[in-house]
Every structure is written in structure tokens, then in C-alpha cells.
Amino acid sequence: PAERTLVLIKPDALRRGLLGEIIGRFERKGLTIESLVVRTMDAALADAHYAEHVDKAFYPPLKTFMTGGPLAALILSGDSAIEVVRSIVGATDGRKAAAGTIRGDLSLSNRENLVHASDSPDSAKREIALWFPEL
Ligand code: CMP
């Protein structure tokens, strides 16, 4: 069934000039871009978005990275969009992600891994409300 998911195209992607390359992969798959905004995450939004990670050792450098420059936030929709987007994005660690995925083809890092994508219907709902409260 059609569903919506939240994607962040992270600051490393914009810094590296990969925004079009990454959006193009989602478009070519057939997903629909419902909303798209470029903005810089502030500390409060980072803590809310990554609430499940704020106590982890990797969070402080993740927060510095994610708030360090503009990113793109998108709502993508389509049949099984949450699972489809996760499979296009690939495993968290770019060094281990499969070739053919965004991270597998374009990232060598476990932190600067180009994309965030909601991992479940509950997180999609929560993250869409955080990033697009007007919807
Ligand atoms: P993301 O899908 O945005 O969800 C949490 C993020 O934390 C993840 O992508 C990575 O950017 C980062 N991350 C997860 N695990 C690690 C780790 N072990 N070391 C560094 N960064 C990590």
C-alpha cells in the first residue's frame, strides 16, 4: 500500500554536491516527492529527531555533523515506501553497505552516510511531524 516516509539528505551529501544524484535515485525508482525543504538542523531538532540515540557514545559527533551545514528533508511517498527507501539507501556503515545502494556506492563512513530514512511506520509518522509540523 502507498505510504509516506521521511528522508534526510545529510550535510555531507550537500557539501559533496550529491543532492541531485541522491534525489534522482529516489525519483527513478518511482517514488513521489511530496515535500522538500533545505535547512540547517539546530540542536533542539537534532535531539528530538535522534531521541533514541542521544545517550549513545556516537551521538555528540553525530550531532556536530548533522547541525554543521544545510541538509534536505523530504517526504517521499509510494507503495511500501518505508521499506523501499531503506533498501535503496543501504546499510548504515557505508563501508559495508551493498554496491548499488546509495551508501554502498557513495559513502565510506559509518557517520557521514549521506541519508537518513525512517525505519518504521511509527518513526515515519513521528519524523514527518517533527520536520513538517504544518502538515
Ligand atoms: P541514521 O540512519 O541517520 O541513524 C543514526 C545515525 O547515527 C546513523 O544514520 C549514522 O549517521 C550514525 N551512526 C550510527 N551508528 C554509528 C556509529 N557506530 N558510529 C558513528 N555514527 C553512527
UniProtKB/TrEMBL annotation:
<dbReference type="GO" id="GO:0006241">
    <property type="term" value="P:CTP biosynthetic process"/>
</dbReference>
<feature type="binding site">
    <location>
        <position position="103"/>
    </location>
    <ligand>
        <name>ATP</name>
    </ligand>
</feature>
<keyword id="KW-0418">Kinase</keyword>
<keyword id="KW-0547">Nucleotide-binding</keyword>
<dbReference type="GO" id="GO:0006228">
    <property type="term" value="P:UTP biosynthetic process"/>
</dbReference>
<feature type="binding site">
    <location>
        <position position="92"/>
    </location>
    <ligand>
        <name>ATP</name>
    </ligand>
</feature>
<dbReference type="GO" id="GO:0006183">
    <property type="term" value="P:GTP biosynthetic process"/>
</dbReference>
<keyword id="KW-0479">Metal-binding</keyword>
<protein>
    <recommendedName>
        <fullName>Nucleoside diphosphate kinase</fullName>
        <ecNumber>2.7.4.6</ecNumber>
    </recommendedName>
</protein>
<dbReference type="InterPro" id="IPR001564">
    <property type="entry name" value="Nucleoside_diP_kinase"/>
</dbReference>
<comment type="subunit">
    <text>Homotetramer.</text>
</comment>
<keyword id="KW-0597">Phosphoprotein</keyword>
<feature type="active site" description="Pros-phosphohistidine intermediate">
    <location>
        <position position="116"/>
    </location>
</feature>
<keyword id="KW-0460">Magnesium</keyword>
<dbReference type="GO" id="GO:0046872">
    <property type="term" value="F:metal ion binding"/>
</dbReference>
<dbReference type="GO" id="GO:0004550">
    <property type="term" value="F:nucleoside diphosphate kinase activity"/>
</dbReference>
<feature type="binding site">
    <location>
        <position position="86"/>
    </location>
    <ligand>
        <name>ATP</name>
    </ligand>
</feature>
<dbReference type="InterPro" id="IPR023005">
    <property type="entry name" value="Nucleoside_diP_kinase_AS"/>
</dbReference>
<keyword id="KW-0963">Cytoplasm</keyword>
<feature type="binding site">
    <location>
        <position position="113"/>
    </location>
    <ligand>
        <name>ATP</name>
    </ligand>
</feature>
<feature type="domain" description="Nucleoside diphosphate kinase-like">
    <location>
        <begin position="2"/>
        <end position="135"/>
    </location>
</feature>
<feature type="binding site">
    <location>
        <position position="10"/>
    </location>
    <ligand>
        <name>ATP</name>
    </ligand>
</feature>
<comment type="function">
    <text>Major role in the synthesis of nucleoside triphosphates other than ATP. The ATP gamma phosphate is transferred to the NDP beta phosphate via a ping-pong mechanism, using a phosphorylated active-site intermediate.</text>
</comment>
<keyword id="KW-0067">ATP-binding</keyword>
<dbReference type="GO" id="GO:0005737">
    <property type="term" value="C:cytoplasm"/>
</dbReference>
<comment type="similarity">
    <text>Belongs to the NDK family.</text>
</comment>
<dbReference type="InterPro" id="IPR034907">
    <property type="entry name" value="NDK-like_dom"/>
</dbReference>
<dbReference type="InterPro" id="IPR036850">
    <property type="entry name" value="NDK-like_dom_sf"/>
</dbReference>
<keyword id="KW-0808">Transferase</keyword>
<keyword id="KW-0546">Nucleotide metabolism</keyword>
<feature type="binding site">
    <location>
        <position position="58"/>
    </location>
    <ligand>
        <name>ATP</name>
    </ligand>
</feature>
<dbReference type="Pfam" id="PF00334">
    <property type="entry name" value="NDK"/>
</dbReference>
<dbReference type="GO" id="GO:0005524">
    <property type="term" value="F:ATP binding"/>
</dbReference>
